[in-house]
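Technical annex, item 7. During the second reporting period the consortium partners agreed on a shared format for inverse folding records so that results from different sites could be compared directly. Each record opens with the tokenized structure and is followed by the designed sequence. A conforming record, contributed by the partner at site C, is shown below for reference.
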């Protein structure tokens, strides 16, 4: 086993999740994770597509005409290399981005916090900077992204590691008991 990972009941966890300090600083990064230049959008689960389809009419109230048109013409998701993912516009902006001044934000999450829907956002977005991959089994890996440097600084200042920052998303995506196991290890 790679010494950079710890096995928790068959799920490999990157040690950086315990050691790296991290706390999003949207005012400094400007929502870079929602506008990341890539051939691939955020990973999606099949049931997330169904959840988004159910509440899309509420979400689209916060989207630009450009994004609504893109979704009408090409849908909000696509499949590439047997993976489901959120579609992006111009290999950059997520189709669910809306702009709050110069900060890219998630339209799905906006209506979730307004209590208009119960689905927060795709778990892959909620877990970021953790990525769930499969390398002979499930693996939680810290994805280093240069635009997140402000989050590293803020995490150091606030003394928050990736595990603590991602507490609610780990509980949501993998389970409360799994988070508790990670946290018990973290407290050692």
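Designed sequence (site C submission):
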């Amino acid at each position: 086993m790679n010494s950079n990972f710890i096995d928790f009941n068959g799920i490999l966890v990157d040690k950086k999740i315990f050691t790296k300090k991290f706390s999003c600083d949207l005012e400094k990064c400007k929502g870079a994770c929602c506008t990341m230049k890539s051939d691939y959008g955020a990973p999606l689960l099949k049931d997330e597509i169904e959840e988004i389809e159910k509440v899309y009419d509420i979400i689209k109230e916060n989207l630009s005409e450009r994004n609504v048109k893109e979704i009408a013409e090409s849908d909000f998701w696509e499949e590439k290399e047997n993976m489901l993912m959120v579609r992006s516009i111009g290999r950059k902006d997520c189709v669910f981005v809306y702009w709050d001044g110069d900060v890219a934000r998630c339209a799905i999450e906006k209506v979730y916090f307004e209590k208009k829907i119960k689905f927060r956002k795709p778990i892959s977005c909620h877990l970021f900077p953790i990525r769930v991959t499969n390398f002979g089994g499930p693996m939680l890996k810290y994805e280093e992204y240069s635009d997140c440097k402000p989050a590293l600084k803020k995490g150091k200042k606030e003394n928050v590691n990736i595990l603590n920052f991602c507490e609610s998303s780990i509980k949501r995506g993998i389970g409360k008991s799994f988070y508790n196991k990670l946290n018990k290890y973290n407290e050692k």
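Strands lie at 5-8, 11-14, 77-80, 83-86, 88-89, 93-94, 97-100, 103-106, 130-134, 138-142. The radius of gyration is 17 Å. All partners now use this format for quarterly exchanges.
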